[in-house]
Amino acid sequence: CLSLLCSLLGTPFEPDLDDKILFWEEIGEEPFRIDRYLYQLRLAGKLRRLRGMLVGRLVDCQPRDRRRALPLRGIISDVLEGYRYPVVLGLPFGHARGRWTLPVGYDAAIDTGKGAVRITAP
């Protein structure tokens, strides 16, 4: 979860994201909170050296007041402005049925031209 990742910042359990593909999902968070979490990662320098980003299912993350909320796609685009790595949204992982299991620590590649995510065993 994006919220849990942010709560690890500044602790001994903070993950090293340099040269990594960050994958995250969230459940039950309004868009303004997702915006805040992503900007916290940006301001902490955690998004600067990524190789890519995969966004899973965002379950129950609709705004309470749709008239005053930015769309999640716009939030992600704004936060990542100036970064030049592939980003894939809406992948089937997270807190939902029919989800992928993503291994941590394996070599991976994102090819947005082919619409593919490839994970290889060492």
Topology, please?
Elements: H1 2-7, E1 21-27, H2 31-43, E2 52-59, H3 72-79, E3 87-88, E4 107-111, E5 116-120
Characterization of this structure:
With 122 residues, this protein is of the alpha/beta class. The protein has 3 helices and 5 strands. The protein has a 3-stranded parallel sheet, with no helix packed on it. Strands 4-5 form a two-stranded antiparallel sheet. Strand 1, helix 2 and strand 2 form a beta-alpha-beta unit. The protein is globular, with a radius of gyration of 14 Å. 16% of the residues are buried. The mean pLDDT is 88.
Give the N-terminus to C-terminus distance in angstroms. Answer: 26 Å
Give the neighbour order of strands across the main sheet. 1-2-3
| Number of helical regions | 3
Shape: globular
Overall SS class? alpha/beta
Spans where pLDDT lies below 50 across 5 or more residues:
none
Estimate what percentage of residues fall within beta strands: 15-25%
Tell how many strands the DSSP assignment holds. 5
H/E order of the elements?
HEHEHEEE
Q: Would you tell me the overall average pLDDT?
A: 88
Radius of gyration: 14 Å
Largest sheet: 3 strands, parallel
Share of helical residues: 10-25%
Question: What features would you highlight for this structure?
Answer:
122 residues, alpha/beta, 3-stranded parallel sheet, two-stranded antiparallel ribbon
Give a short overview:
With 122 residues, the protein is α/β, with parallel strands linked by helices. It has three helices and five strands, in the order H-E-H-E-H-E-E-E.
